[in-house]
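Quick sanity check, Large ribosomal subunit protein uL4:
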Amino acid sequence: MANLKVMDQNGKDSGEVTLNDKVFGIEPNESVVFEAIIRQRAGKRQGTSKVKNRSAVRGGGKKPWRQKGTGRARQGSIRSPQWRGGGTVFGPTPRSYAYTMPRKQRRLAIKSVLSQKMIDKDLIVLDKLTMSAPKTKDLVSMLNSLNVDGKVLIVSDDNNVQLSARNLAKVKAVPVNGLNVEDAVNYDKLILTQDAVKKIEEVLA
């Protein structure tokens, strides 16, 4: 079990928290993290590309010329693929690029990222994080008090915190159940509340 300093919203010490080594202290598995990110990005793809095959192109119902006697190559439709304006062969059709990944691997990926944040000292734990109203200025002031720079990912179930972060280019706030591998990798610092740590450990430990 590793101990990590807990701070309040003003950047002052507020005790310590004991982190579960099964979640925050494993050996990071880069290959599983890579696979999880690829899967996540694949699920975001629209998959709406589509072209018309010869049956979908308008026209071409009449045979252009008779089968024999003209000296020209036989043709059955002006919408055949070899014709200009004809259908496309084996073109893209709407599809889903999403695929599944075993639950153990998904959990190993997020635990690997959390452990790497712990190793790099990019993990910050707050005793609590609440805002009375959505106000970007107050959130910026809090981040300055914590002396964090770069891209920051905040994990908090407080809706006002999530709304306050929407207008900041380098800050993103997500609920605990919205924590994912891609965001955790892309952001330099990860800020968790003590409640968030407990919920994460309940699921992953």
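Posting the structure with no commentary besides this: The CA atoms of residues 9 and 33 lie 31 Å apart.
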